[in-house]
Design brief:
Layout lengths: L5 H15 L4 E7 L5 H7 L10 E6 L10 H11 L4 H8 L3 H8 L16 H17 L2 E6 L6 H11 L7 E8 L8 H8 L3 E3 L6 H12 L5 H11 L3 H13 L9 H6 L3 H12 L3 H13 L5 H8 L3 H14 L2 E3 L2 E4 L2 H9 L3 H17 L4 H8 L10 H14 L3 H12 L6 H15 L4 H11 L6 H8 L12 H14 L7 H17 L4 H13 L9 H17 L4 H14 L13 H8 L7 H9 L7 H16 L3 H15 L3 H19 L2 H8 L3 H4 L3 H17 L3 H17 L10 H11 L3 H18 L2 H15 L1 H15 L5 H14 L4 H17 L2 H10 L15 H11 L4 H8 L3 H15 L4 H12 L1
Parallel strand pairs: 1-4, 1-5, 2-3, 3-4
Antiparallel strand pairs: 6-7
Length: 935
């Protein structure tokens, strides 16, 4: 299929008409590799059909350049095929000497020096033969790849094109760009004799769509065709190579495959490009290699120096590479396609590549280029003798870390470690830097490199500071090897009371890590609480080390509920007031403060702090990303915003799949809380089938999985089994000293199960015990929940009074879900009428805002018609309906915001309002409801 070549065909047809009338001409068909010169040349004989025009063809090739008169023989062989009898007689008769001179295999056409020896008579004889044939029928002479024509044939062509007068002939020669070498006078003679130059243009987008249709048999999506057009730059060879590879891979021409199109690098095309490059002169090959090494964005002066070219030679060589078809633009050192880069690299030997990258590194370094640019070149070299290499790699790693790319930083530092000159503390510092980069994505490697660095350090303070680079496990048990290492360096350093300055801070941070390592030991927890009390009512929080230690000690007070929630909240907020929000905090015990505030039901003021922390981090799938998502999920759950919490919790669990040791337990805790609030059996089953059972034996995870198992049993009506699981969980928590009624609220649930299985005495005892613990702890959510449990067991007016008290207490809580549950129970207890309807309406609004469908349904059922429990769909504003409609089309919040010209925050507010009004838990249920809204 030849597309968009009508203009060129028309010009050749016009030349043929003029040639038939005696006005012969030479036409030159040019263009870069792959533009379709050969395809167009092969189409030209169709112009001769029915016109009594004889066609002579010849195709030159690099491997036949030593075959003297090979092209001339091809032309005359095609001439003799079907030629009149008198032409055969010429070949065998009167011109027999000419035939032997030109076409005999042993014809001496070149002397020992390579000079042509073919006599003028032979040249004239060949022309005379053409003249005799053209007198009968006009000739169309086609020569493809003029640049590869053998020297004797080129000599005859140069002779012929100057003597076309008197012939009825049109000669069309195809010449690839980049081969008009001024040192080849014969080629220049042929080119200069051309009357007209035909230069096919790149294919348009419309033509690209037709090629896509031909390749796949169906029209491609607009985005797919556009990507094909942009990737190939309209070059037919590039386009067809890409499409052929896509078709062989089973790819369909749809919009979802756009990135596949842009990333494809066809192997056959790479080999053709490499072959084309190998026959170029040395300067062109050197400049192409320099572009491949430095990249298309490198400055011209650097490319010229690396390729060894002066400014004039650089511009001339750049033009050659563009004419050959390797560059996107004539004066821009950027390859046309990524496969060109592959072709250039494949044409270099390993030694050449190393030499060029090493030279490029030195060139960039001495020209003051950024460290990461220099480091990128050093990364491609096995070893480098530059004395500045290690420092450049360290500086590049530091830059990568600051922009949130720890994996890239680690690659630079691993490469720096290959330098054999490093030893002692210099090597230790490099190992510590590497461990710092790795702790966000490979904690095991981090610990290993810290262990290697510590023996190389000369002072206890340096060794202890190095050990602190290992991130603590916030929830769950840390690796025993890491804990042993912390004990070892802490013993060498000594207690904080005997130290000053930096050494004291290091000792305090070590104490924090070691005390946190014992958070499942009741004796260690008790000692930590005593240590916290010893700090006084206003512990010093001036340094980060003091804040870290206080956070760990405070966590012990939270787990044991040995301090009241109000005191915990006050001290936790003091820590946050003095602690700037940064993503680096996930590598310290400071996230424990968030858990303390959740347990104290004091999360209203923490959202802005978490938002600042989130802004300081870069998305990259690290431990920091997982833990920040966990924190957001925990705070949203503590506020009762379950549907929003689920998004963060599920994202944290996905990230924790590769960071289980650091984030697996805590992310499972967050997701389980969501699953229990939603009464979602599918999500609970997923948690129970997850990696938790196989990958950790921590108390927090064990208790969490027991809660999930009890929920599964209860959901299936196995009340006794669920109760046994909960009681076993409670005994284990109590034995470990974990008695906080908010973090692990097993008693309220167990009391309800006791009631269901017909044991009100045991239920009442647990309810009383929970109420006592809740009053001691003092968090509104714990006390309000305990009052509701007791009210359910009490009944009558006393039950109503307890529920009213629960409502009053929960209005001071951040947890709107717990308030909604109590309001539902109160609405059921009250006489039908005004107050009950108002209570249920408030409960319905809260439940819808929290995104808990099961509770919304129960409230609707309690309210009868449901009109007061949840507003109808018609209550949506016009903007809310528009946003819902766009969401239904599959757009993300950011895409909806761009469509409407507002902020993403505004879209979130509209969606939250819609969820509350419609009584749905989130985006999925909203989309399911849309057809009903439109009907």
């Amino acid at each position: 299929m030849l597309l968009e070549r009508e203009a060129e065909l028309a010009q050749v047809a016009e030349a043929l008409r003029a040639g038939a009338a005696g006005d012969s001409s030479l036409m030159l068909l040019t263009g870069p590799m792959g533009i379709g010169r050969t395809a167009l040349l092969q189409q030209l004989p169709m112009l001769a059909e029915g016109e009594e025009i004889r066609v002579l063809r010849a195709n030159a090739a690099p491997v036949e350049q030593d075959f003297a008169l090979g092209v001339v023989r091809q032309l005359f062989d095609s001439l003799l095929t079907g030629a009149p009898e008198e032409l055969h007689e010429w070949r065998l008769g009167a011109e027999d000497d000419l035939y032997r001179t030109v076409f005999s295999d042993d014809a001496p056409l070149l002397d020992d020096g390579g000079t042509l020896t073919m006599p003028e008579e032979a040249l004239y004889g060949l022309r005379s033969a053409l003249a005799a044939v053209s007198a009968e029928r006009p000739l169309l002479i086609l020569v493809d790849d003029l640049q590869w024509v053998d020297a004797p044939s080129l000599r005859w062509l140069a002779f012929l094109v100057k003597r076309l007068h008197g012939l009825r002939a049109v000669v069309v020669c195809a010449l690839r760009d980049g081969y008009r070498r001024p040192g080849d006078p014969l080629l220049r003679e042929v080119v200069d004799a051309a009357r007209r130059e035909l230069r096919p243009a790149p294919l348009s987008l419309g033509a690209t769509k037709e090629v896509v249709h031909e390749q796949f048999g169906v029209p491609g999506d607009e985005e797919f065709a556009r990507a094909c057009h942009e990737t190939s730059a309209g070059n037919p060879l590039f386009l067809k190579s890409v499409l052929a590879d896509l078709a062989m891979s089973g790819v369909r021409p749809i919009a979802e495959q756009v990135e596949t199109v842009r990333s494809l690098r066809p192997a056959l095309l790479r080999e053709r490009l490499a072959g084309s490059l190998r026959v170029q002169p040395r300067p062109a090959r050197d400049l192409a290699a320099a572009i491949a090494v430095l990249g298309g964005q490198a400055e011209p002066d650097l490319l010229a120096k690396l390729a060894g070219l002066d400014p004039i030679g650089f511009l001339a060589t750049l033009r050659v590479l563009h004419e050959v078809g390797l560059l996107a633009a004539e004066q821009e050192p950027r390859f046309l396609h990524r496969v060109v880069q592959d072709a250039v690299e494949s044409s270099m030997t390993v030694a050449e590549r190393e030499r060029l990258h090493d030279a490029a590194a030195a060139l960039l370094y001495h020209n003051g280029r950024p460290a990461e640019l220099v480091a990128a070149q050093l990364m491609a070299v096995t070893s480098s003798g530059h004395p500045w290499a290690v420092e450049v790699l360290r500086a590049a790693a530091d830059t990568a870390l600051r922009r949130g790319a720890p994996r890239i930083a680690a690659r630079y530092l691993r490469r720096a470690l290959l330098d054999g000159s490093l030893a002692g503390e210099g090597r230790a510092r490099l190992l510590i830097d590497l461990a710092t980069a790795e702790r966000g994505f490979d904690p095991a490697a981090c610990e290993r490199h810290i262990s290697q660095a510590i023996p190389l350090l000369t002072t206890p303070r340096l060794r202890a500071a190095a050990a602190l680079r290992i991130s603590p496990t916030i929830v769950g048990l840390g690796p025993p090897s890491a804990i042993d290492l912390l004990h070892q360096v802490a013993e060498d350093l000594g207690p904080a009371t005997s130290l000053e300055g930096t050494a004291r801070d290091v000792a305090l941070r070590l104490e924090a890590r070691l005390r946190h390592a014992g958070h499942e030991d009741p004796a260690e927890l008790a000692a930590a609480v005593e240590r916290l009390s010893a700090l006084g009512e206003e512990p010093a929080l001036i340094t980060a080390a003091e804040r870290e230690l206080t956070a760990v000690l405070l966590n012990s007070a939270v787990l044991t509920a040995r301090w009241p929630a109000a005191e915990v909240s006050r001290l936790a907020n003091r820590i946050l007031e003095r602690e700037p929000a940064t993503s680096e905090q996930v590598h310290t015990p400071l996230p424990l403060v968030v858990i303390g505030l959740v347990a104290a039901d004091s999360v209203r003021g923490i959202s802005s702090w978490l938002a600042m922390e989130q802004q300081t981090r870069r998305q990259g799938g690290t431990v920091a990303d997982a833990l920040v998502n966990v924190q957001q999920a925990m705070v949203l759950s503590a506020r009762g915003r379950v549907s929003q919490a689920r998004e963060f919790a599920e994202r944290a669990v996905r990230l924790a799949e590769v960071h289980w040791q650091e984030a697996g337990v805590v992310s499972t805790l967050a997701l389980t809380r969501v699953a229990l609030d939603l009464h979602d059996p599918v999500l609970i089953e997923r948690i129970l089938d997850g990696p938790g059972r196989r990958r950790s034996s921590s108390l927090a995870l064990t208790a969490t999985l027991q809660f999930a198992k009890a929920a599964q049993d209860a959901g299936n009506g196995r009340w006794t089994s669920a109760l046994e699981t909960l009681l076993a969980c409670g005994r284990q928590l109590e034995a470990s000293g974990w008695r906080n009624p908010v973090l692990f609220a097993w008693r309220p649930w167990a009391a309800e199960l006791h009631r269901r299985v017909g044991d009100p005495g045991a239920a009442g005892a647990l309810a009383e015990e929970e109420l006592l613990r809740a009053r001691e702890w003092g968090a509104p959510v714990a006390l309000g929940r305990a009052l509701r449990v007791k009210a359910r067991l009490t009944g009558g007016d006393q039950g109503v009074r307890l529920l009213r008290e629960s409502v009053d207490v929960l209005r001071a809580s951040a947890d709107e879900l717990e308030l909604a549950r109590t309001l539902l129970l109160l609405g059921r207890k009250l006489r039908p009428g005004g107050e009950a309807a108002a209570v249920l309406q408030e409960a319905g609004g809260l439940a819808a805002a929290c995104g808990v469908p099961w509770l919304v349904e129960r409230i609707r059922a309690a309210a009868g018609s449901g009109a007061s429990a949840a507003p109808p769909e018609a209550a949506l504003t016009r903007t809310e309906r528009t946003v819902a409609s766009l969401v239904g089309r599959g757009l993300t919040n950011q895409e909806v915001a761009a469509e409407l010209g507002v902020s993403s925050r505004a879209i979130e507010k509209h969606l939250t309002s819609s969820y509350r009004k419609l009584g749905v838990s989130g985006r999925r249920e909203l989309i399911e409801l849309l057809p009903r809204m439109d009907s």
